[in-house]
Design brief:
The complex is a heterodimer of chains A (298) and B (281). With 298 residues, chain A is mainly alpha-helical. Chain A contains 12 helices and no strands. Chain B folds into 2 domains: 54 residues; 210 residues, MetI-like (MetI-like fold). Classes of the chains: A mainly alpha (298), B mainly alpha (281). The interface between A and B is large, with 101 and 97 residues.
Chain lengths: 298, 281
């Protein structure tokens, strides 16, 4: 039925959103695309008008530090997202079995995702500090008298950053998967049990397929904000020591702001933008597929 | 039945460990906000606090003898920027969410994906061009400069959430209202809006926290007490080689408090909105 609406109404309703996104995202992105084709340096404003084509991108191909950061970022995201999903699933399954006090458990679980990533970074910088950190102090209390250089050693520093990131974001998975578990209809579960499935079979053949859309919702939401890991790394190690924990986002910031090489930084950042968009579209597609398979039954 | 009992015990134990891991880092920071640096730095470590003090907060707010950090300005900036951007983003995003929930139109699916993708751009990547553009139009180091950005950052998510909330309101109710003589506008404000209200409130809280917690853009686009926010101010406590741990902890507490309070309010609606919008899309 049509209540005196024109077919333009939805577009009118969306207009203000477009205006903001145009001004804050689209125009700046086009501008940064242009900048990435110039040798622009903040210290020499005239360089903005010198067009050098794909020079910056060609240069990047040989930029070993950049590709190292790129590879590290992909590795970081793969490990972190998978672990968060597995841990989140485990926690959701555990909480689902609790009947009394589930509410309070859910609330505690939500705290980490409400923390500012900078705060999470600071928190874990404090905990992992080699001299006064909670962790080394605890180890010493148990008689291990060497101070472990958590944030200085290359691999340990990466590990510490991952822990901080996982602490910050596992709840996103746990909460959405818990909501998924709650929404599974009881009939198929009962039917499977009656037909003689053991709990493991029930999980893999009934529970998991129902959960798939929820897993992809969580992954889509996470892919929208993975770059918040920048805040954590920035404060924990700032890409150091000697660039050994540099991720895509920290190397962009360093090139652009500390070295003032905006043209080059914009070329780098374009690659990180494409990476993010790729991940988001990938998960969103999966979400739609899963939705088609399961959505009708919910 | 004994094995079932054992299973429950194990489950409870596992959950206990998980909850400890979730809460200890935060509690550790809160505890240390009330300890003097001397004790934090002590070797061997002091486990049971010997003295709890408010000195860090007194110093931070400028009543102590130490050189102070302008926390009041940071707090004011954070509050003004977060509240303003939340209000605007909620109004704008709600209109968009309503369009998605109640209308069919050409390009609906791709517009939705487009909105989401605009949120996927890493803050630091966005900050480079915005830094240049804002400095030309004079928005660098102004609250307005950040407000505009945070509105745009929050719109996609608010659209997603409100889309879900509005769809949970039965369309029949709206139709009934129109039958009874409401205009479309009245039917919206009298029927649909009140029913979706609690959901909208949690979308607002979520948006508030995104702005309150943002760092990557704020750290590049603010310079002085005119616009620096709390998250950026946290870095004031780190000098080249030394860190004022106690000071940082007490400032962290200031940042945490709203997050913790608001979490209690959002949890239920946030989950339902996200999953409903996502699964039934």
């Amino acid at each position: 039925m049509n209540y005196g609406q024109s077919r333009w109404t939805p577009y009118l309703l969306l207009m203000p959103s477009f205006v903001f996104i145009l001004g804050v995202v689209l125009v700046p992105l086009l501008f940064s695309l242009y900048t990435s084709l110039t040798p622009y340096k903040l210290t020499r404003p005239n360089t903005l008008y010198r067009f050098v084509g794909l020079f910056n991108y060609e240069n990047l191909l040989e930029h070993a530090d950049f590709w190292e950061a790129f590879g590290r970022t992909v590795l970081f995201l793969t490990i972190v997202l998978n672990l968060e999903m597995l841990l989140g699933l485990g926690i959701a399954l555990m909480i689902q079995r609790v009947i009394r006090g589930q509410r309070i458990l859910r609330t505690i679980m939500m705290f980490p995702m409400m923390f500012a990533p900078v705060l999470v970074g600071f928190q874990f910088k404090f905990i992992f500090n080699d001299n006064i950190g909670l962790l080394n102090n605890a180890l010493q209390a148990f008689g291990y008298n060497q101070a472990i250089p958590w944030l200085v050693d290359e691999w340990l520093a990466m590990f510490s950053i991952m822990i901080a990131e996982i602490w910050n974001s596992t709840s996103v998975f746990a909460i959405l998967l818990l909501a998924g578990l709650m929404s599974i209809p009881k009939d198929p579960l009962e039917a499977a049990k009656v037909d003689g499935c053991n709990p493991i079979q029930v999980f893999f053949h009934v529970t998991l397929p129902f959960l798939t859309p929820f897993i992809y919702i969580a992954l889509t939401i996470r892919s929208l904000e993975v770059a918040r890991a920048f805040d954590i790394v920035k404060i924990m190690t700032n890409g150091g020591p000697a660039g050994r924990t540099e991720l895509l986002w920290t190397i962009v910031a360093r090139t652009g702001y500390e070295n003032a090489r905006m043209g080059e930084a914009n070329a780098m950042s374009y690659i990180s933008v494409l990476l993010s968009i790729f991940f988001t579209i990938f998960f969103y597609r999966k979400l739609q597929q899963a939705r088609q398979q399961v959505g009708d039954q919910l | 039945m004994n094995s079932k009992r054992l299973g429950e015990r194990l489950n409870a134990f596992g959950l206990g460990v998980v909850m400890l891991i979730f809460s200890i880092p935060g509690l550790w920071v809160v505890l240390n906000a009330f300890r003097p640096n001397r004790e934090i730095l002590a070797k061997p470590a002091v486990w049971i606090p010997e003295e709890l003090t408010l000195i860090n907060f007194i110093n931070m707010f400028g009543y102590g003898e130490m050189a102070t950090i302008p926390v009041w300005s940071y707090f004011r900036n954070s509050l003004v920027i977060s509240v303003t951007s939340t209000v605007i983003a909620l109004l704008v995003g709600m209109m968009g969410g309503y369009a998605f929930a109640r209308y069919r139109f050409r390009g609906k699916g791709s517009i939705f994906v487009g909105l989401m993708l605009s949120r996927a751009i890493p803050g630091i990547s966005l900050s480079l061009p915005i830094f240049m553009l804002w400095s030309w139009i004079g928005l660098i180091d102004t609250p307005l400069g950040l407000i505009v950005i945070y509105v745009a950052m929050n719109i996609p998510f608010i659209v997603w959430l409100t889309d879900g909330y509005f769809r949970q309101v039965p369309y029949e109710l709206f139709e009934a209202g129109v039958m009874d003589g409401c205009s479309r506008w009245q039917a919206f404000w009298l029927i649909e809006f009140p029913l979706a209200k609690s959901g909208l409130a949690s979308a607002a809280i979520f948006a508030f926290l995104v702005s309150w917690n943002e760092f990557a853009l704020a750290t590049q686009l603010t310079r002085s007490t005119d616009s620096k926010t709390l998250t950026v101010g946290l870095m004031d406590f780190t000098a080249q080689f030394t860190i004022d741990w106690a000071g940082m902890c007490s400032m962290a507490v200031i940042i945490i408090i709203p997050a913790v309070l608001l979490t209690f309010l959002v949890q239920k609606h946030l989950i339902s909105g996200l999953t409903f919008g996502g699964v039934k899309g």
